[in-house]
Specification:
By secondary structure, the chain is mostly helical. Helices cover 74% and strands 0% of the residues.
């Protein structure tokens, strides 16, 4: 007597097929974005100038200031994760301007008429931004090594730093995409980007502890995603570095923000053509 294996329900097959298609489309978008970067990698090297100046000049000067409580680590070690987070923010927050260029060139129209899901377009670009952030991490590691910053060189810690940086880059690049979908103009986008970067940076724990801030600014810092990225990096990157929250909380907050922004960006993406 032979038994025939029952066929899987059509709903399960449809869901698995849709999931495979989503990952395939996301990988395709990420691959296209990475090819752009490989063809013109000069942006990555120019982005290295800013953190170099902050660590070499700003860090050396403020290391002489005794009024900034940094715990058991030097001020240079305290601010190194903050400068890494800053470079991630500054690189990712202007990611949306490339989408506006693509709209003007007609690329967005071609993507929207394709069968690719809107969320795969957003996540694919976020993955590409995460790769850029990872490259920035290696640059910061080299600068920190040259300046003898006490870095944790454990492989697990390095992987944790790279993951946090990639997630942070995805958050801010998706936020940038949301802004691009709303303003739809390069000039207005540049103005808004310039307005947002400095408040996000200074209203975080990147260059001074949250305890030094006035109470009203601490409220804003709690709502600032950069605060959680810096907090995560400080705990897993620096020898003796202390985080205010557990790593799971920091990454969980960043992950939740990324999901929310991805949903919003996927809904707004078609409005670029209006």
């Amino acid at each position: 007597m032979t038994f025939v294996k029952p066929a899987e329900p059509p709903v399960v097959l449809a869901e698995s097929t849709a999931l495979v298609a989503f990952f395939r489309e996301t990988a395709a978008i990420a691959q296209v974005e990475l090819r752009k970067l490989l063809r013109d990698p000069t942006e990555l090297f120019t982005r290295a100038v800013q953190p170099l100046l902050w660590l070499v000049i700003f860090g050396q000067v403020f290391s002489k200031v005794r009024g900034i409580p940094t715990g058991q680590v030097s001020y240079l070690a305290f601010m190194t994760p903050g400068i890494l987070a800053q470079s991630v923010l500054f690189a990712a927050i202007f990611y949306g301007i490339a989408v506006i260029w693509e709209r003007d060139l007609g690329i967005v129209h071609k993507l929207l008429v394709s069968p690719a899901h809107r969320s795969s377009l957003v996540v694919g670009k976020a993955i590409s931004a995460g790769f850029r952030g990872v490259v920035q991490s290696f640059i910061i590691y080299l600068i920190a090594f040259a300046m003898r910053v006490p870095i944790k060189w454990n492989l697990l810690d390095i992987v944790g730093v790279l993951f946090a940086v990639a997630l942070g880059s995805a958050v801010f690049s998706t936020f940038s995409l949301v802004i691009a979908c709303i303003v739809k103009s390069r000039e207005r986008f540049m103005g808004i980007g310039q307005v947002l970067t400095m408040p996000l940076f200074f209203a975080s724990s990147a260059i001074y502890p949250l305890a030094m801030m006035p109470s009203w600014l601490q409220v804003f810092a709690v709502l600032n995603p950069l605060t959680y990225l810096v907090d995560a990096l400080r705990g897993i990157m620096i020898e003796g570095g202390q985080s205010l929250h557990r790593l799971s909380i920091d990454l969980g907050v960043l992950g939740l923000i990324f999901v929310i922004l991805s949903v919003i960006a996927a809904k707004l993406y078609p409005t670029l053509l209006r």
